[in-house]
């Protein structure tokens, strides 16, 4: 299995598809506007990550009060695409929730989960 991320031309050629959508967007997992549901991924073979376009997103650097950190949420959703479930560790990127104004990166629990799933040392 090829485990590299490579940018490709054209949405249809991608194994991982990222998009911003609003409300009922046809996948049975509606967005609710600002707050609560930030994004969802369809793992692991679908390869799609949808972000709620109505959220107030930041692309950093660093935490911005009252704004959701795009990279932190993207890392979480890509974790689902790779087969990770939610973590019980509140410091993990795979923890079920994140508050606005918070930035998270991979921690040891996230890394260990990937190692277990993919047989890495």
From TrEMBL:
Highest rank taxon of the organism: Eukaryota
CDD domains xref list: ZnMc_MMP (cd04278)
UniProt xrefs under InterPro entries: M10A_MMP, MetalloPept_cat_dom_sf, Pept_M10_metallopeptidase, Pept_M10A, Peptidase_Metallo
Cofactor(s) needed for function: Ca(2+); Zn(2+)
GO molecular function annotations of the record: metalloendopeptidase activity; zinc ion binding
Residues reported in the UniProt entry to bind Zn(2+) 2: 76, 80, 86, 94
Residues reported in the UniProt entry to bind Ca(2+) 2: 15
Chain sites annotated for binding Ca(2+) 1: 55
Cofactor note: Can bind about 5 Ca(2+) ions per subunit. Binds 2 Zn(2+) ions per subunit.
Binding site for Zn(2+) 1: 25, 27, 40
Catalytic machinery residues: 77
One GO term describing the cellular component: extracellular matrix
PANTHER family, per database record: MATRIX METALLOPROTEINASE, METALLOENDOPROTEINASE 2-MMP-LIKE
Domain Peptidase metallopeptidase intervals: 1-120
Protein name per the record: Peptidase metallopeptidase domain-containing protein
Keywords in alphabetical order: Calcium, Hydrolase, Metal-binding, Protease, Zinc
Pfam families named among the record's database cross-references: Peptidase_M10
Residues binding Ca(2+) 3: 32-33, 52, 55
Upper taxonomic lineage: Eukaryota, Viridiplantae, Streptophyta, Embryophyta, Tracheophyta
GO biological process terms, semicolon-separated: collagen catabolic process; extracellular matrix organization; proteolysis
